[in-house]
Amino acid sequence: MNHSRIPGRRAALAVAGAVVLTTASLTLQSAQAAPVPHSAAELASARAELNAHAAVPGTAWAVDPRIGKLVVTVDSTVKGARLDQVRKAVADLGDKATIKRTAGILRPFVAGGDAIWGSGVRCSLGFNVTKDGQPYFLTAGHCGKASGDWSDSQLGGVIGSTEAAEFPGHDYALVRYTGSADHPSSVDLYDGGQQSIAKAGEARVGENVRRSGSTTQVHDGQVTALNVTVNYQEGQVDGLIGTNVCAEPGDSGGALFDGDTALGLTSGGSGDCSSGGETFFQPVPAALQATGAQLP
Q: What range(s) does the Peptidase S1 domain occupy (predicted)?
């Protein structure tokens, strides 16, 4: 993956954060794609080969339709035998893939938005939702795996308990409100205002989006990729949204949005908000479908 600021610490829980992942494998797409020299089946087969032979932390890959091949990004932590492994896997694919080095490090972020505090971790609430008429919120799955109970301050009382969390594989968690926190369907804009959220939608390549988090507040950018595969130290996460929106540690679990449409939950990426970077998001529609929740 934005959220608007909600007055008050508890009301602010409708906000989002971001998480930066250890490694990533993405499918780069462009708003205006040129004809590709390889078929979709050929590229899907090539991608499967990368998943099997090059899925090491610090790597990412995606089909770039502008050139009709997989672009394999390798960060500065990939060296020695692991770098040789990736190079061989790419070479074996011939002209279906190419390598791109990046000076940044693909790593996870932990914290964000109008913060929610767990057992030794700080993350961000993504979007307030309901399930069976009861109030819940969505956040990142790696946050939900890290803590069973959540507070809206470091030493505050419990306001919610993790009911379901998926990570790796996907990166979403559903937390049930158990305390007396406000839970409006809006996002913190960090300027005293809020962005109301009315619906969930699928992101589109080239779409202008916003992200909100407690560390870096609100930042804008565009969707650059869909169906991204990220290789974390903890395992592989599939189906993510790729963006050129920056994020930093402390932004985990936060919201990606376009106007009143909820798009994603911050999962991870590389870079920072000084030099720029890329961030990946768990799609909200998939999280809603998997958990049986809906926006209020």
A: 136-287
